[in-house]
Structure formats: C-alpha cells, structure tokens
DNA sequence: CTAGGGTTAG
C-alpha cells in the first residue's frame, strides 16, 4: 500500500522489518517497481541483487521491471550481467521479457546484442519489432530503419510515429509527410498529441503553412475547444514562423490555458515580426498569468533590439536579477550587445563585453561585428574579426561581413583580398537560397538560377520588374557585389553592368518574380531565405510591394520582413 | 514490454 502511494522510504523500512521467509516474489517485485518509478533506479537494482542472494524466485514481471530500470538509467553493466546470468540459469523468457531486454540493449546502444535476442526469439510480437525499429533508427539511421519498417509483418501507430519523427528530425521533411499521409489516409490510424506536436514543429521549421493548416484541422477535430497547451503552443509557433503572425495571435487568444512556454512562443513570434511595441505591452499582462523565465527575457530583449527600443531593453537587462529573479546568461548579454550595437552605441557594447562575468562567445562577437559593419567602424571590426577567426576558423560569414564593410568604405582592394583568403583556404560561402511555397510545392532559387522549368517566364518578368523599379526611382546598390578578379581600380561601364546583373538575379528577386507570375493578383507572397536579406533586395522589394500592390513576407535568417505599400515592417532597422 | 511533444541570442 505504501509503495503504491509513493511513500518509498516508509515502504522500504516496513519491508526490512518483515522477515525474509515471509516475503515472496510479488513483494520484492512490487518494491522494486516502486523505486524504479520514483527515479530511484539504483535502489531498485540493488534490491534485485539482494533478492537473488536470498534465493527468491524471479518471474516475468521481475525481469521486466529490472530491465526497464536499467534501460532508463542507461546502466549497461548491470543489465548485461543480469541477462548473462539469467541465460546461464536457464531462466525462461517470455516475449514481453525479451522485449524488455532488447529495449535495454537498444537504449544503451548495444544493437548487436539486441539483434541477437531478436533473431533467437521464436515468437515475435509487434512490440518486439517496434523495439528493434526504435534502436535501429536511433543508432543506425533512418535508412536502416526504413528497411526494418518495411519488413514488419504488421505496423502499429507507434512504429509509424517513430518513422515519421525520425524523418522530420533528420531533415527529410517531405518523406516524413508522405509517411504521415500513408499512416492517416492509407492505414487509418489517428493522430495524438505527440504526433501533432512533432509534425507542427517540422512545419514551423520549413515554414509549410499548407501542411500546418492540414494538421490544425485535425487538431480541432480531435480535441475541439479543449486545446492542449503544448499542441496550442506548437500551432502558435508554426503560424508565427510561417509569416502568419495574426493567425498565431488568434490561436494564442483562444488557448484555454497558457503557461510560460506558450507566452514565450507568442512573444518570440511578435519579436521576429518586428512588433517590439506589442511585446513590451504584452509582457506585464503575461506576468499576471505566468512567471517569466530566461527565454521570456530573451524574447523581450530580442524584440527591443529588432525595434530599436534601446532604453526599454536596458531597463529589462539591468533589472534581470532584482525584478525578475533571473541570473543573466550569455544569451542575455548577447541580446544586450546587439541592442547597443545596432543603435550605434558600439563603445558601450564593447565595455559591456569587457565587464561580462562569463567569457564572451562567438555569438557575442558576431553581433558586435555585424554592428560595426552597419555603422562603418572597420578598425574595430578588424580587431573583432581576429578574435572571431580564432573562435570559429571555418565560419565564412564573418569574413564576408568584414569584406562588405571594406567595400562600403570604398576599400575594394581590401575587400577583394579578404575574399581571396577564403578562396585560397578552400572555404566557400554558404550559397543564398530563397524558397516560395506555391500550389503545395516548394520552389527553390539560388542566385542567377536557371534550373526552374519556368525560367524563361521568370526572367521576362524580372526584366519588366527592373524597368518598372527604375522608373519608380530605384537605383541598384552594387556596393557589396565584390568580384574576386577585380583589381581595386576604377569601375568601368562593363563591370558596372555585370555587377548590376548579379544583383538583379539574387535569389529573393527570382522568388518574387516567380510568385508574381504564379499566383492570382493581390495574393500575398511568402518567401524564405536561408541568409539575411541583402540591402539591395530590401529596397527593391519595398517598391515592388507598392507598384504590384502585393504584400510580400520574407523570413530571413533572423526575422521577418513584411513589405506592404512601399514600407517594411522592420522600419529599415536591421 | 514499444514512440513521446511545445519556446532558445548573431
């Protein structure tokens, strides 16, 4: 009774008082189980050794309880030893006991042993297959997992979920979704809270709102108004990261209960969309309902930095401990350095780094370098780059950033040299890519891309667009277009032309053109870029949004830019 | 006996 009530210590004491002769297998097992379920796995394992010493008979449930404990604790030594001696004793293993043994081996990474038990089993249940599948996927990869999965005589929803989560988790989003539709439409399985969450998280990552909506419909069908907090949060995050911040807010408002994580997701979303004011306004409301944590303050500071709310940001940062009871972490320092740096207060930012009680990392310096680049402080930038290269020698972004700074200052020779250094070392810049979801398909573009089946139409549209832009007063900004072959002298007309062409065929412009020709008039365009949007594209797309009367939402590496009627939601502060 | 979830700095 005490054991099942969770009074472990009392149960253990009482158990000690009873003479050993009066205790049977069930008593011992009950107590072991009790310890195992209260996180006291070592005590459970010790109890098992004691039990063996006393010569008490070991049954099916005892074996299962023991191996479950070893699996959870990752205690291979005890598990392997116990299994070995049990086999020597000639103990009979039921299917369930074998499953528990295999699970232990699998969780500890001993797939050879797990497979051996599996091969030797005369009878295998679906669970046996699922246990092996889980181990294979975790230790041998999704590909090997697929082989086991296809060999399974019948598949349960656990097996399907393992495969779907593994695909999505390894970046094979498309394959994951294919499996999902097979599971739901082909095999008639339902989805549960766990599957909803992992799928929505994948949709958020890839910005796939079509799939996200499909899941949302199923969530409503399955749970109705009784929305689960975690599923609700996953929905909020998915809509926010797909550029639908208003929908995210609606889902958030309808959530019956909200915890810190839900608030964090909402505040983060608003921050990414440049709604710093909304974040600052919502924060006090949040405090009435939930206690803010590290991530909340990061979201708030981040929002301040992206909106230029410098004083507000300082206020939150300096009150982290006194008001919010939080110890400042390196992440908070990084946000603060960013707030000061973006606002041009570079000396203060550098002072803050010098005064930090934690050693600064590459994020902190990276942020400072970016700010130096924006504010043209190349001497300071050079110094920071040296630090950064030591911390992260293979990173190309920092070199490019500094190179762009030189280019901006007219020091094209230095800019070119820096790129040469990268080239000589064989380090290549991560290519910029832009994606646009149209008609349930993802269309991807790189700079100067001619691979798309509708390339011709896209480039015709591009020419038309550039012409319209020019007559609206657009002047291409080729400052950052550095060619490795140039000698740093005057730019001649031919090269100017070449540079302009390079800027025109940036991936985000191609994606916009494709969006313009493949969607109905006035429809909003949603584009995702893996790097930060470039200066020239930013000013060009502002004008595009006006002359074509389109809302264009671009998610770049850092945040969202929502272009509408010639303006951007970032207010050009980025 | 099997899977197991939501927020995370530049």
From TrEMBL:
UniProt-listed SUPFAM superfamilies: TPR-like (SSF48452)
Q: Mind listing the UniProt keywords for this protein, alphabetically?
A: Repeat
Superkingdom per UniProt: Eukaryota
PPR repeat segments run 24-58, 94-128, 228-262
Query: Which Gene Ontology molecular function entries are recorded, alphabetically?
Result: RNA binding; zinc ion binding
Query: Start and end of every DYW domain?
Result: 495-574
Q: Does the keyword Repeat apply?
A: yes
* KW Repeat (keyword) present: yes
Q: Name one GO biological process term.
A: RNA modification
Q: Which family does it belong to?
A: Belongs to the PPR family. PCMP-H subfamily.
Do you know which PANTHER family this protein is assigned to? PENTATRICOPEPTIDE REPEAT-CONTAINING PROTEIN, PENTATRICOPEPTIDE REPEAT-CONTAINING PROTEIN ELI1, CHLOROPLASTIC-LIKE ISOFORM X2
Name the UniProt record assigns to this protein: PPR domain-containing protein/PPR_2 domain-containing protein/PPR_3 domain-containing protein/DYW_deaminase domain-containing protein
Taxonomic lineage of this organism? Eukaryota, Viridiplantae, Streptophyta, Embryophyta, Tracheophyta
């Amino acid at each position: 009774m005490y054991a099942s009530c969770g009074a472990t210590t009392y149960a253990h004491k009482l158990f000690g008082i009873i003479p050993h002769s009066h205790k049977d297998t069930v008593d011992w097992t009950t107590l072991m189980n009790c310890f195992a379920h209260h996180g006291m796995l070592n005590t459970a394992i010790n109890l098992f050794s004691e039990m063996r010493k006393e010569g008490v008979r070991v049954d099916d449930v005892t074996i299962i309880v023991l191996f479950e404990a070893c699996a959870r604790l990752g205690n291979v030594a005890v598990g392997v030893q116990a299994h070995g001696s049990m086999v020597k004793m000639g103990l009979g293993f039921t299917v369930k006991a074998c499953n528990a043994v295999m699970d232990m081996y699998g969780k500890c990474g001993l797939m050879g042993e797990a497979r051996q038990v599996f091969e030797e089993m005369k009878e295998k249940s679906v669970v046996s297959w699922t246990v092996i599948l889980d181990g294979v996927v975790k230790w041998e990869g999704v590909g090997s997992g697929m082989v086991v999965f296809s060999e399974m005589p019948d598949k349960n929803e656990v097996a399907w979920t393992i495969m779907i989560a593994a695909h999505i988790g390894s970046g094979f989003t498309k394959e994951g979704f294919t499996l999902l539709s097979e599971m739901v439409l082909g095999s008639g399985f339902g989805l549960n809270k766990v599957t909803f969450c992992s799928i929505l998280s994948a949709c958020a990552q890839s910005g796939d709102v079509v799939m996200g909506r499909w899941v949302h419909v199923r969530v409503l069908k399955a749970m109705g108004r009784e929305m689960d907090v975690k599923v609700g949060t996953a929905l909020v995050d998915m809509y926010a990261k797909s550029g639908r911040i208003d929908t995210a807010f609606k889902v958030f408002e309808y959530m019956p209960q909200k915890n810190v994580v839900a608030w964090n997701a909402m505040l983060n979303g608003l921050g990414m969309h440049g709604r710093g004011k909304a974040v600052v306004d919502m924060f006090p409301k949040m405090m009435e309902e939930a206690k803010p944590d590290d991530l909340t303050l990061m979201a708030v500071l981040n929002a301040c930095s992206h909106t230029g709310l410098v004083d507000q940001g300082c206020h939150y940062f300096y009150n982290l401990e006194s008001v919010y009871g939080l110890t400042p972490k390196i992440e908070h320092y990084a946000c603060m350095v960013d707030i000061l740096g973006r606002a041009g207060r570079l000396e203060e930012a550098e002072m803050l780094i010098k005064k930090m009680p934690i050693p600064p990392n590459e994020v902190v310096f990276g942020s400072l370098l970016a700010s130096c680049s924006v504010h043209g402080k190349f001497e300071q930038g050079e110094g920071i780059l040296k630090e950064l290269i030591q911390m992260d020698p293979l990173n190309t972004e920092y070199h490019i950033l500094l190179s762009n700074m030189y280019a901006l200052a007219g020091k094209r020779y230095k800019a070119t040299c820096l790129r040469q250094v990268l080239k000589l070392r064989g380090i290549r810049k991560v290519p910029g890519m832009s994606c646009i979801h149209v008609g349930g398909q993802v269309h991807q573009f790189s700079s100067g891309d001619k691979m798309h089946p509708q390339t011709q139409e896209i480039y015709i549209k591009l020419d038309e667009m550039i012409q319209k832009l020019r007559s609206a007063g657009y002047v291409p900004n080729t400052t950052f277009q550095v060619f490795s072959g140039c000698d740093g002298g005057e730019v001649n007309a031919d090269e100017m032309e070449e540079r302009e062409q390079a800027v025109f065929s940036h991936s985000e412009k191609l994606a916009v053109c494709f969006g313009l020709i493949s969607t109905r008039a006035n429809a909003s365009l949603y584009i995702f870029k893996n790097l930060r949007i470039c200066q020239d594209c930013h000013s060009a797309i502002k004008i595009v949004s006006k002359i074509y009367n389109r809302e264009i939402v671009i998610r770049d590496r850092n945040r969202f830019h929502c272009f509408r009627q010639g303006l951007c939601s970032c207010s050009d502060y980025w």
